[in-house]
Amino acid sequence: MKDKLEKFNEYREKISFHKHVITQFQWDMQTQTPSKGFADKVEAVTYFSSQAFQLQTSEEYGKLLKSLLKEKEFEELDEAMQITIKREWKEYEENKRVPKEFYEEMVRASAHSQKAWEEAKQKKDYSIFCPHLQKMIDYRKQLMEYTRPDMEVYDAMLDAFEEGMDSETIDRLFGELKAGLVPLLQRIAKKTEPDRSIFRGEFPKHLQQEWSGFLLDYIGYDKEAGVMSESEHPFTMGFGPKDVRVTNHYRKDEAINAMFSIIHEGGHAIFEQGVDEQYEKTALTEINFLGLHESQSRFYENILGRNINFWRPIYIKLGEYFPQFQQISLEDFYREINHVAPGLIRIDSDEVSYSLHIILRYEIEKAIFRNGVEAKDLSKLWNDKMEELLGIRPENDTDGILQDTHWSDGSFGYFPTYALGNIFDGMFLEALTEELGDVDTLLADGRIRDITDWLHEKIHKYGSLRTGKEVVEHVCGKEISAKPILKYFEDKYTKLYDL
Ligand code: ZN
User: What secondary structure letter does DSSP report for 402?
Assistant: First the structure.
């Protein structure tokens, strides 16, 4: 057993070095690779991905995993190691079913598709991206049929991003959400909006960068275990708990978007940085439960960041960075950061209409994979659904189907995790309030680190030991439901909009 374990650890190390290189390239491609250099990077990533794939699917590795699982001593290994071996075996079995040529083709096609999406988005021309999207649909469908032949294709995709979640559960949760959010939005829409132009102005990028750095620090991001860079869309990328990187995107004429983007990405990063040291080199540092991941970023961004009390201790500081805010009261600022209005763009949307953007994408994905709707019909379907759910229609595809990058690399089943994150947050907020007391008071006292510590203790330190669903049950002691987040919305916006 000891020899086998040693061999196993050697293997994992080799695979993780490959993943490290791939992540490094991806980081580079998304933050600074010049357009002429892009094709070479694609080739390099393709090469290392296929090397890693070969390692993970080698006969030798498969035999090793299988025999480890059979050993009597397996049950005596610690839980983290058992999970690591089981997950590797599951991945091995799934990967083993994928023909090498198919996998390479898919990785290459996906890189080109992402590039085509960028061009299409820039030129507001869906036709540039449409054939690539169709290819990604076909590739992903085929991939699921190879890897998870026992599961229905779309359920398999959902499960791949948030283990344990299927469309039946999501239908229930999203049904609850839709039923609560649509009337709430309608009530809010009847109210008049205050003047928003005072939030426009000139906000130098270097100051926004510094302020973003301050916010990261404030919420508990460890700068010695990560860096902050810039990209078109903010994201987080981790190399394990000791190096978790975030990016932000800055607009010249307003500063609020970048603040919330960085709090969001900071939330993702704090989760990954917080995984307990004892789990280093186990699969628990790889957190592929995206709904759970999203619950942490959105907890910081919305539940904490969009609470007026989050800003009480630091609002003066904000005015020091951007003097314009000295003329704006904290109450007006609070109103602005919780401004609710149905808009076309998901990432610009408020927390109330946000979930409806996700439900739109979820319904389209079901249409693709359950009803066989093709890429050529998706732009219209998108616009129709937009009208149905939010009452507005995009004038071009850049504001419609081209707005998000996810489908360009074939990440179908990903979007629902965002709204699942919201739903988890309602549950976590309830539990936190019971155990630590009122969040308003904690924030107003500047004790946000106490909240971060609680999240570390309850959630972060375990990494991916439990699935999102299990974490909710463990932390909250009850089954997952959308009711707590709906109650949060109802309470907050009834007061804010005097409904
Ligand atoms: Zn996120």
Answer: T
Cβ atoms 131, 375 nearer than 8 A: yes
CA–CA gap between residue 401 and residue 386 (Å, rounded):
10
Q: How far is the CA of 9 from the centre of ligand 1 (A)?
A: 31
Q: Count CA atoms within 13 Å of residue 273 on its CB side.
A: 25
Report phi then psi at 247, rounded to 5. -125, 165
210 Cβ neighbours under 8 A, 6+ residues apart: 321
Of 118, 265, 272, 351, catalytic: 265
Q: Which two tokens stand for residue 349?
A: 């949307």
Distance between CA 246 and CA 412 in Å, rounded?
23
CA 16 to centroid of ligand 1, rounded, Å: 24
Active site residue 265: yes
pLDDT digits (tens, 9 = 90+) for 170-213: 999 999 999 999 889 989 988 988 889 999 999 999 999 999 99
Q: Is 339 helix (H, G, I), strand (E, B) or coil?
A: coil
Q: What is the DSSP letter of 201?
A: S
Query: pLDDT tier at 12 (50, 70, 90 boundaries)?
Result: very high
Domains of the chain and CATH, by start: 2-161 (1.20.58), 167-496 (1.10.1370.30)
